[in-house]
From TrEMBL:
<dbReference type="InterPro" id="IPR002054">
    <property type="entry name" value="DNA-dir_DNA_pol_X"/>
</dbReference>
<dbReference type="InterPro" id="IPR022312">
    <property type="entry name" value="DNA_pol_X"/>
</dbReference>
<dbReference type="Pfam" id="PF14792">
    <property type="entry name" value="DNA_pol_B_palm"/>
</dbReference>
<dbReference type="GO" id="GO:0008270">
    <property type="term" value="F:zinc ion binding"/>
</dbReference>
<keyword id="KW-0915">Sodium</keyword>
<keyword id="KW-0235">DNA replication</keyword>
<dbReference type="GO" id="GO:0003677">
    <property type="term" value="F:DNA binding"/>
</dbReference>
<keyword id="KW-0540">Nuclease</keyword>
<dbReference type="InterPro" id="IPR004013">
    <property type="entry name" value="PHP_dom"/>
</dbReference>
<comment type="function">
    <text>Repair polymerase that plays a key role in base-excision repair. During this process, the damaged base is excised by specific DNA glycosylases, the DNA backbone is nicked at the abasic site by an apurinic/apyrimidic (AP) endonuclease, and POLB removes 5'-deoxyribose-phosphate from the preincised AP site acting as a 5'-deoxyribose-phosphate lyase (5'-dRP lyase); through its DNA polymerase activity, it adds one nucleotide to the 3' end of the arising single-nucleotide gap.</text>
</comment>
<dbReference type="GO" id="GO:0003887">
    <property type="term" value="F:DNA-directed DNA polymerase activity"/>
</dbReference>
<keyword id="KW-0234">DNA repair</keyword>
<dbReference type="InterPro" id="IPR016195">
    <property type="entry name" value="Pol/histidinol_Pase-like"/>
</dbReference>
<dbReference type="InterPro" id="IPR003583">
    <property type="entry name" value="Hlx-hairpin-Hlx_DNA-bd_motif"/>
</dbReference>
<dbReference type="InterPro" id="IPR050243">
    <property type="entry name" value="PHP_phosphatase"/>
</dbReference>
<feature type="domain" description="Helix-hairpin-helix DNA-binding motif class 1">
    <location>
        <begin position="128"/>
        <end position="147"/>
    </location>
</feature>
<protein>
    <recommendedName>
        <fullName>DNA polymerase beta</fullName>
        <ecNumber>2.7.7.7</ecNumber>
        <ecNumber>4.2.99.18</ecNumber>
    </recommendedName>
</protein>
Length: 567
DNA sequence: GCCGTTTTCGGCCCGACTGTTTTCAGTCG
C-alpha cells in the first residue's frame, strides 16, 4: 500500500463523514493526516512494519489515525471507512466531485431521492425535481448538469504525478520503458503504455500480471498484457518487443496518431513502409531501420524529434530542415520562483524550503505566500509583507549557499488592482500576480482585469495564467493574445505552473505566447518541500510548448536573474 | 481526531459569493 493510496482513503473517509454531517474538526483531522501522508518522504507501510518506529511521531497522526493506518495496511480498509460506506454509497463520493455540489446537497439528495448515480442525478435535474426541495432551484439544476458533463469529460483520465508514480514503480519492476501520451508529457493520461524488450520480455508480461497491485487482468498473450493497476484502476498495457524492433515499437506506441500517420506517409513517398516492427523497403521488404528511434528518423531524412513535440504541429517540417528548437531540460533550471510556507497555506518554513531547494542544486528561490484576499490561506497583509521582506534581507546577509527572493503571490482583485498597496509591493523582490476568485466573469471583463494588473510596476509574472485545474475546472476565458502581447510589451513574464493539478499554461498557449515575444518562468507552486520535485512536469509542459532554455528566465544564474528582475 | 498543555480539555483559518430567500444555507477557495 503506497502513501498516495492511504492518503486517498483517509481523505475519502473525511468526505463521507462530511456528507454524514459529522464534526468538522474531526473531518479536518482526517484530511490533514491525508495531506501529511501524501507528502511524507517515507512509506508509511514501512514505518508501521518497523517495531522501532512510531507513526504517531509524525505531526498530524495521533492514536486514532494510527489505528486506522494499521488496519489499512493489513486489510485495505478501516472500520470508520466501512461504517461510512454502509451509510452512503461510494457513488456519493463521485457526486462530491461535481462543481457546485457539496456534502449537504449530496446528503439531502440521498435522503430524499436515494440518488446514487450520476445518471439518476442527471434525470432529476432534467425533470426539475430538485426544485421540490427547499433552497434548490432551476439555477442549481443547470449548474449540476453542467458540472456532470464537465466531470464526464475528465473521468477515466489520470494526472501526470499518478501516472508517473506507476510508471516508475512498474518500470523498475519490469525493466520497462514508458511510451504513449505519458512519454509525450500530456498533462493527463488515459492509460499507461510500457515496453519491454530483450530475452526476458515475454517473462516480464507474466511478472507484470503477478504484481501485487495489478488487478483485473484484461488480457495476456505473448506480446501484450493489459491490466488495471492500483486503487484508482489506471489501465496499463505492457508490450514485449524484439530488440531489432524496439525503436520502431517505441516510436509507434509513443505517437501521437497524427504524427505517426505523417511519418508513414513520408516513408511511403520514399518507397518505404513503417510499422511497429521497423522501417522496410517496399520493393524487397528488407529492413532499413528499427532498433532505435534515431535510426528510423534518420532513415526518413529527419532529425530525432523529442517525444513532447510529436503532435504533427510542424515538428516534422522543422526536423527535416534541421531546425528543431533545442528544448529546455530539467537540469537547466537554477531556481524555483513560486512556493508557499506556513505563513500562508504551505506546510514548511522558509528555511526548510530553502534547504530542500539547495539540496536540489538550485542557486535561488522565491518564497511567494498568498496575499490577504485569500483569507482562508491566512494571506499576508501589507504589514506582514513588509516584515517578511526584511526577514529575507536578514537571511541573505549570510552566505547560505542559496539566495532567497522575497516574493508574494498577490491576488488580482476583480477590477484588476493588486490586493496589496504599491508601497508594500515595492518592498518585495518578486511579485507573482494570480487570480483566485471571480473566475466566472465575462471574457471582456477578465481581459481588462489582466491587462490592468500589469499596470502595477511591481508585477513580474502572471501566476498560473489560465487558472485551470486539471480534471476539475476549466480555464477562465479572456483574450489571450491581447494579454500575452501586453505582457511581452511590458516585460511581464508568464508562469508555467508545474503543479500536476495545473500545468498552466498549456502547450498551445505557450507556443502562442512565445510567438508574441513573452518570456516565461517554470515554478512548482510547492506547498511542501516534496513538491519541489514537481519541476519535471513543468519542464515537460514547457517542452511541449517548444520552449528553449533562453525562453525561461529561471535558467539564468542568480546574478543575471536578479538583474533581469530589477529591470 | 489532533495538539498542547498552566497535562485529559478546549481550541482548531473564515470571508465572499450565489441562489435561494426575505435572513441565510451551501459552496468555494
Amino acid at each position: 500500500m503506497e502513501n498516495l493510496e492511504i492518503a486517498r482513503m483517509l481523505a475519502e473517509t473525511g468526505d463521507l463523514m462530511e456528507i454524514g454531517g459529522e464534526d468538522g474538526f474531526r473531518i479536518r483531522s482526517y484530511r490533514n493526516a491525508a495531506s501529511v501522508i501524501e507528502g511524507y518522504p517515507e512509506r508509511i507501510a514501512d514505518i508501521l512494519n518497523d517495531p522501532a518506529r512510531k507513526v504517531t511521531d509524525i505531526q498530524g497522526i495521533g492514536k486514532g489515525i494510527a489505528e486506522a493506518l494499521k488496519e489499512i495496511v493489513t486489510r485495505g480498509s478501516f472500520a470508520r471507512r466501512d461504517e461510512m460506506l454502509e451509510k452512503y454509497p461510494p457513488t456519493a463520493l463521485e457526486m462530491l466531485r461535481i462543481q457546485g455540489l457539496g456534502p449537504k446537497t449530496v446528503r439531502t439528495l440521498w435522503e430524499h431521492f436515494r440518488v446514487s448515480t450520476l445518471e439518476d442525478l442527471e434525470r432529476l435535474c432534467r425533470e426539475h425535481k430538485l426544485q421540490d426541495l427547499p433552497r434548490m432551484g432551476a439555477k442549481l439544476e443547470d449548474k449540476i448538469l453542467k458540472g456532470i458533463s464537465q466531470y464526464r469529460q475528465s473521468a477515466g483520465r489520470f494526472l501526470l504525478n499518478y501516472a508517473s508514480a506507476a510508471a516508475e514503480e512498474l518500470g523498475e519492476y519490469l525493466g520497462a520503458t514508458p511510451a504513449g501520451s505519458f512519454r509525450r508529457g500530456r498533462e493527463t493520461v488515459g492509460d499507461l503504455d510500457l515496453l519491454v524488450t530483450g530475452e526476458n520480455a515475454e517473462a516480464a508480461l507474466a511478472k507484470f500480471v503477478q504484481h501485487p497491485r495489478v488487478h483485473d487482468v484484461l488480457g495476456q498473450g505473448t506480446t501484450k498484457a493489459s491490466a488495471l493497476f492500483g486503487l484508482e484502476g489506471l489501465q496499463v498495457d505492457v508490450r514485449a518487443v524484439p530488440a531489432e524492433s524496439y525503436g520502431a515499437a517505441l516510436q509507434y506506441f509513443t505517437g501521437n496518431k497524427e504524427h505517426n500517420v505523417a511519418l508513414r506517409q513520408r516513408a511511403q513517398k520514399m518507397g518505404l513502409t513503417l510499422n511497429e516492427y521497423g522501417l522496410f523497403k517496399v520493393s524487397d521488404e528488407t529492413r532499413v531501420a528499427g532498433a532505435t528511434e534515431e535510426e528510423i528518423y534518420e532513415a526518413l531524412g529527419l532529425a530525432w524529434i523529442p517525444p513532447e513535440m510529436r503532435e504533427n504541429q510542424g515538428e516534422i517540417e522543422a526536423a527535416e530542415k534541421r531546425q528543431l528548437p533545442e528544448l529546455i531540460e530539467l537540469e537547466d533550471l537554477r531556481g524555483d520562483l513560486h512556493m508557499h510556507t506556513r505563513e500562508s497555506d504551505g506546510r514548511a518554513t522558509m528555511e526548510e524550503m530553502a534547504e530542500a531547494a539547495k539540496a536540489m542544486g538550485y542557486e535561488y528561490i522565491a518564497i511567494t505566500d498568498h496575499s490577504k484576499a485569500l483569507a482562508m490561506a491566512n494571506g499576508l497583509d501589507e504589514a506582514r509583507a513588509v516584515q517578511f521582506a526584511a526577514q529575507v534581507r536578514e537571511f541573505n546577509k549570510e552566505d547560505r549557499g542559496i539566495r532567497i527572493f522575497s516574493g508574494l503571490e498577490c491576488d488580482i482583485l476583480r477590477d484588476g488592482r493588486m490586493d496589496l498597496s504599491e508601497d508594500a509591493l515595492a518592498e518585495l523582490d518578486w511579485v507573482v500576480a494570480s487570480v483566485h476568485g471571480y473566475m466566472n466573469i465575462e471574457t471582456p471583463e477578465m481581459t481588462d482585469r489582466l491587462l490592468r494588473c500589469m499596470e502595477s510596476p511591481s508585477v513580474k509574472v502572471l501566476g498560473h495564467p489560465t487558472g485551470r485545474v486539471l480534471l476539475h475546472r476549466e480555464a477562465y476565458t479572456y483574450d489571450f493574445d491581447r494579454v500575452a502581447g501586453e505582457a511581452a510589451k511590458r516585460g511581464v513574464w508568464m508562469e508555467v505552473n508545474a503543479s500536476p493539478e495545473r500545468l498552466d499554461l498549456s502547450a498551445n498557449l505557450l507556443r502562442r505566447a512565445k510567438a508574441l515575444g513573452v518570456k516565461f518562468t517554470i515554478s512548482t507552486d510547492a506547498h511542501h518541500p516534496k513538491h519541489l520535485a514537481n519541476m519535471k512536469y513543468g519542464v515537460k509542459m514547457a517542452r511541449r510548448g517548444w520552449l528553449t532554455k533562453d525562453d525561461v528566465m529561471n535558467t539564468r544564474g542568480v546574478a543575471k536573474f536578479a538583474a533581469a528582475v530589477r529591470k
